[in-house]
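Hey,
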Amino acid sequence: MRTLSSLRSELSYRNTARAATLAAEISYGAIPSVVYSETETGEHGNFLPASYRRILQQESWRARLAKVYTGSRFLPRKADRTRGELECANSSDALLMNIFCYPGILRRKAVCSLLGIEPGLRPTFGLRPGIPLKNGAADRSEIDLRLGNLLIEAKLTEGDFQTARYDLVHRYRDLDEVFAVDQLPRINQKFCSYQLIRGALAAHAHAACFAVFCDQRRQDLIEACFEVMSAVTSAELRCRLSVVTWQEISIALPRKVRTFLGEKYGIV
């Protein structure tokens, strides 16, 4: 099983090598991060050229590039410009957009079959589905991607699925209907895998499916997914929850995209 630190080290090594021929900065630290920037010719080292062109052409997609990178303080010349979160080599959002903004991807039968979606869908990034709360309001937390009836949370080198206080989790209207709550993982009086709990609740509220995309080298994340899924009381809802690895997705992609994922992320 690959540890989080070893995966971060591999991505750092791969992208440091790529950065030698691209517009990029390397952070301070034991495991340096690589932050790319757009070149004078309009290309970007963190993206496939065809994907990046499509991102720039779609206003809602282009807006994702404005998310600020929080690690800028570890970069030399940190005051030179505002870096974007999706410019970081470790960004799971950038990985997601590299794949699903690539021309023709959502018309490929292999991709649609793997994900259980209809061909020709338009991706919606940063969806706020609204999860009903007991007080009649809704939680507007963001989910990374929607493809038709499929809600997706994407992970790469993130540490976990976040924790949440007891009272935050018990705000949800359908918590006791969806979960055997005493079976949900906890640590230090907090619920673990909060994003997974929200994802399952969103799928229930909207009669949707929910999938986690993660690296097969992150067995810790995969095990966390199945731990939360096992606490779902409805077999029908459990069938609408899944884990899909980037490696499984890669097999269904065009050769140019597979090559990029292999070189930049070690996804093979």
